[in-house]
Amino acid sequence: MRYARYFACSLSLLALLAAGCSNPFAPKKRQGQDPQQAPAPPATTPEILLDNLSRAMNDRDKDLYETVLDPGFWFTETNCLGEVVFENGLEEELRLMGGRDGSPGFFDRFRTFEYEFALIARSVELGRDYPKAFEGDPDGHPDEDWVVFRGRTHMLMVDENNDGFRVEQVMNYKLRQGSEGLWRIIRWVDDPLSGGAECGSSAGKPVAGQVSWAEVKGR
After folding, report:
1. What is the pLDDT of residue 136?
2. pLDDT tens readout for residues 94-148
3. SS3 label, residue 169
4. Sheet containing 183-190: which strands, arranged edge to edge?
5. CA distances (Å), origin 130, targets 6, 42, 72, 140, 183
6. Cα distance between residue 33 and residue 60, in whole Å
7. Average pLDDT, whole number, for the chain?
8. What are phi and psi of 144, to 5 degrees?
9. Could you give the CA distance from residue 183 to residue 174 in angstroms, rounded to a whole number?
10. Phi, psi angles (nearest 5°) of residue 218
């Protein structure tokens, strides 16, 4: 009888699995990830790079996110006086979004992570117009032309307690092409939010609940 019960239970388990019952021991998938989704294409054009950035953000894909950033990546945000209020390089950027060592970041903290980019202008920074002003000048690239995308970015992050942030901000992405022909973001430059005491005007202040991307990063 004991073997009969065991055999019956085994058949029941197989039937459940055949019917599409989920494996309780399988790793949990992040919201937005589709196991049937094709891999992101190589960023052979600046436009593909921006598509990959959007996909990495919305899918909270740490591995893909790392591929869109150049080894010389640098993020900056200024206030209305042009003073840098926040900056970080590649390693800090990856730590903030979710560390290589598995440490949690923004991609892990929020159950909802939405990202949209609406293009305002596309331009090219010709290397001849950007000589190095000093050794290590992060904005000097005399031997390379960079493609620049400027647009309005929407980001919404909400955690399990329905707390979070909403970012509505103009952002600038400067892209360089590597020796292998792939494009990556080398500079991410945020415009300050309109209004604010440092501008000497209260006109155009952000609506309630809106913060800058640098403010989110700094918390």
Report:
1. 86
2. 999 998 888 899 999 999 999 999 999 999 999 999 999 999 898 999 999 999 9
3. strand
4. 84-89, 69-78, 183-190, 164-177, 146-158, 112-125
5. 75, 28, 16, 5, 19
6. 8
7. 83
8. -140, 145
9. 10
10. -80, -5
Residue at token pair 């436009």: 47
Identify any residues that bridge with 217 across adjacent strands, giving them in sequence order: none
Distance CA 61, CA 206 (A): 29
Phi and psi (nearest 5°) for 136? 85, 10
Length of the chain: 219
Distance CA 71, CA 183 (A): 12
Q: How many CB atoms lie within 10 A of CB 212?
A: 23
Give the Cα separation of 127 and 174 in Å (integer): 13
Alpha carbons 101 and 108: distance in angstroms, whole number: 13
Token pair 């150049």 is at which residue? 70
Q: Is 158:112 a contact under the CB 8 Å cutoff?
A: yes
What is the spatial distance between Cα 109 and Cα 164, in angstroms, rounded to a whole number?
10
pLDDT at 32: 45
d(C-alpha 29, C-alpha 103), whole Å: 17
Dump strand ranges (E) for the chain: 69-78, 84-89, 112-125, 146-158, 164-177, 183-190
